[in-house]
Structures are given as structure tokens and as C-alpha cells.
Write a structure and sequence with these properties.
alpha+beta; Arc Repressor Mutant, subunit A; Dna Ligase, domain 1
């Protein structure tokens, strides 16, 4: 990809808006853009990284293949291996988080949105989320009785959504 195309893609990704990331540091909270966060940690801001972050933000709970399809709408030359490497880097930096919602590929979402419980309908596949407060009694009981602390960002509860349950009673 030539340099002018790289700049164009970078500008499009940045112009997409909403590229704010809550800084993960102690003290007063402040906001940094994704590119500031990457640079602060010693990484270059590449168009692929920006496009992957934008896709994760836009899609919310997306597989690498879904993220690749979104990125390739803008930059056809970005292949799936680049998507996987970028997601691995962004996950290790704490900018995105992954979870396993089924037996397939992991799904990714912004790390700033990691504090939620995933609710997956076993009938229709719909993914919803609940606040960690919804399972606070379970979290407390497991800690008190077993000394076990739950990592809510990886917690997935399988069941049936209200729509699928309503179909049975109709």
C-alpha cells in the first residue's frame, strides 16, 4: 500500500469519530485517543491498527472474521493474519478484550466495556450483556466460600433469551 493511501485510510479511521479510550492508569481518570495510547506504549499507529479498533468499537462482540470483513470494506489489502496479529497486540495492551462465547473463535470488544457478563441465547445466538452487579451475590459467595475471585470480563452465561422463551408459550 502506498504512503498516500495509508494516510487516507488513517484519516478515515480517525475521522470515524468516537476514538476515545479511557486511560487505564491510577489517579484522576482522563481520556486518550487510541493513537495516543498506542504511541505512549511505544507502538506505531498504523492504518490497520486504527481500522481494527474502529471495527471492534462498531461491531461490539465480533469474531476476527467479522472484524476482517468490516476492515476490508475500507482496506481490501488487510488480510486475516494481520487482523489476528493486531487483535493479539491490542488485547495484550489492554485496548481490546476477548471472550469465548461459544466453541468457535473468540469475540472481541473494547476493553473499556469489559466489565459485563455475557448472556448468550443457546437457541437464537443473540448476545446480550448484564452489569456485574447482577451476579454480585454469586461473586461474593464464591469469594467467601472458596476464596475464588471471578474475572467478569470473561464470564459467559448460556441460557434462553426472552424472545425464544416467549415463542414456547405462544
Amino acid at each position: 500500500m502506498d504512503e498516500s493511501r495509508r494516510r487516507e485510510i488513517s484519516a478515515m479511521a480517525h475521522a470515524a469519530g468516537g476514538t476515545r479510550l479511557e486511560a487505564m492508569e491510577e489517579g484522576p481518570q482522563r481520556h486518550r485517543s487510541w493513537d495516543e495510547e498506542l504511541r505512549l506504549r511505544g507502538y506505531r499507529v498504523t492504518p490497520a491498527r486504527q481500522l481494527v479498533l474502529e471495527a471492534v468499537a462498531r461491531l461490539n462482540h465480533a469474531t476476527p472474521e467479522e472484524i476482517a470483513a468490516c476492515v476490508q470494506q475500507t482496506a481490501k489489502g488487510v488480510n486475516i493474519s494481520t487482523i489476528y496479529r493486531t487483535l493479539e497486540l491490542l488485547d495484550s495492551l489492554g485496548l481490546v478484550a476477548h471472550t469465548h462465547l461459544n466453541h468457535g473463535a473468540p469475540t472481541y470488544h473494547l476493553a473499556t466495556e469489559a466489565a459485563h457478563v455475557h448472556l448468550v441465547c443457546q437457541d437464537c445466538g443473540k448476545i446480550d450483556q448484564a452489569s456485574p452487579d447482577a451476579i454480585a451475590p454469586l461473586t461474593k459467595a464464591l469469594d467467601e466460600r472458596h476464596g475464588f475471585e471471578i474475572n467478569v470480563s470473561h464470564l459467559t452465561v448460556f441460557g434462553r433469551c426472552n424472545d425464544c422463551r416467549s415463542k414456547d408459550s405462544a
